[in-house]
Amino acid sequence: MDKPVFCVLGAGHGGLAMAGHLALMGFDVRLYNRSPERLLPITSMGGISVEGAVEGFGRIAVATSDPAEALRGAQVLMVVVPATAHRDIAEAVAPHVVDGQIIVLNPGRTFGALEFRQVLTGAGVTADVVVAEAQTLIYASRATNPGQVHIFRIKNSIPLASITAYRTPAVLPVVRHAYPQFVPGDNVFKTSFDNIGAVFHPALVVLNAGWIEDVSEFQFYIQGCTPSVARVLERLDAERVAVAEAVGIRAMTARQWLYFAYEATGRGLHEAMHANPGYRGIMAPAALHMRYLLEDVPMSLVPMASLGGMLGVPTPTINAVIDMAEALLGMDFRSEGRTVERLGIQGLSVRELRLLAIGEEEKK
Fold first, then answer.
1. What is the enclosing helix (H) or strand (E) of 45?
2. Which of 2, 177, 270, 284 has the smallest C-beta neighbourhood within 10 Å, fewest atoms?
3. Could you please report the per-residue DSSP string of 302-346?
4. The pLDDT of residue 198 is above 90
5. Pairing state of beta strands 148-154 and 139-145?
6. β-strand 76-79 against 6-9: which pairing, if any?
7. How much is the pTM?
8. Prior bond to 315 cis, omega within 30?
9. Longest dimension (CA), the chain
């Protein structure tokens, strides 16, 4: 097929990087953002200035806060917003999606594709669209000025899976016109449970909350991960893996992921994290009100704990981190997060869950 037309939904750090890079690669790009103010510099300049791992000026065909205009003529919808906004984006695009469109969450966090599909179904969407999710965001990037973005790194290998899983082979050739880095993910349970940020981010913030609020700077993954803190991370990680096993998924452990991503090894998680040169120099967040809690707790830990509770898998450490995050911020993450009730999967059997995520072909 000819080059697909991409619609990037979200004009934050990742959305600007993706839209600008796609344009530099010669793709026709539509850019959508809910607030038009963020788009003004892009519309006035006619595109996005990109620097770092990619250099140049990417011309954007359409930059709009009108979802109908943004989606018109697009084959691939790349959702690049915090997971807390997935539901809002799904509601915005539901009236405008058409047969044959591919929707990719970059990333889905935990059960993002399930939530997105549920919103579309609840809105009465009958169009034959494929909803997929990436395990992680392909870019490490930061917006530096209005309409400008710095791409620090483009990742080498990103698992991608669709609902239903047997449609993944049809999605990949289209997306890989732009991103050969996307590789087949087993299914959306696998991409969701291999969300390693759920292990590292919230617990490290919670267990270093006093230091974050009182000290100007410290190395987050090195100084923040003492032997005792690492033991908590290992327990949380074991619970994540156990919930995945309950639905027949072999999730990658945090130590395995460190070796896979960075070739970092150690006798335990503490040694492996300290052996990773990629973590050195990464400083801790300056405040508690940031995405490691605001996004990763309700959209990663809450769904893992909720599904574990439904399937009878204990998750005491995950629940403790959720409880402490709620106490620290004075928020109710369970009421706003991805619980089995809010995902519409309460009471489903393991077989029904797998059919929902993996598809009817599993019946064969």
1. helix 40-45
2. 2
3. HHHHHHHHHHT---HHHHHHHHHHHHHHT--HHHHS--HHHHT-T
4. yes
5. antiparallel
6. parallel
7. 0.92
8. no
9. 58
Q: For this structure, is 13 an active site residue?
A: no
**Which pLDDT score is estimated for 270?**
96
Homologous superfamily (CATH) of 196-347+358-363 is N-(1-d-carboxylethyl)-l-norvaline Dehydrogenase; domain 2 (1.10.1040.10)
Region 295-303: mean pLDDT is 97
pLDDT number for residue 360: 55
Residue among 352, 358, 336, 340 nearest 87 (CA) = 336
Locate CATH 3.40.50.720 in the chain: 6-187
CB atoms closer than 10 angstroms to residue 291: 16
Q: How confident is the model at residue 227 (pLDDT cuts 50, 70, 90)?
A: very high
- Known active-site residue 296: yes
Give which of 68, 73, 80, 67 is closest to 21, Cα–Cα. 80
pLDDT winner (highest mean) among 101-105, 273-277, 353-357: 101-105
DSSP 4: P
Check whether 362 has a pLDDT greater than 70: no
Q: What is the pLDDT of residues 19-39, one digit of tens each?
A: 999 999 999 999 999 999 999
In the chain, residues under CATH classification 1.10.1040.10 are: 196-347+358-363
Q: Which amino acid is at 280?
A: R
- Residues 6 or more apart whose CB falls under 8 angstroms from that of 59 comprise 23, 46, 47
201, 237, 270, 274: which one is catalytic? 201
Report d(CA 350, CA 310) in Å as an integer: 10
Whether the CB-CB separation of 221 and 261 falls below 8 Å is answered with no
Rounded to whole angstroms, the Cα distance separating 159 from 239 reads 22
Question: What is the percentage of the chain residues whose pLDDT exceeds 90?
Answer: 88
In the CATH scheme, what is the code of domain 6-187? Answer: 3.40.50.720
List 28, 194, 237, 296, catalytic entry: 296
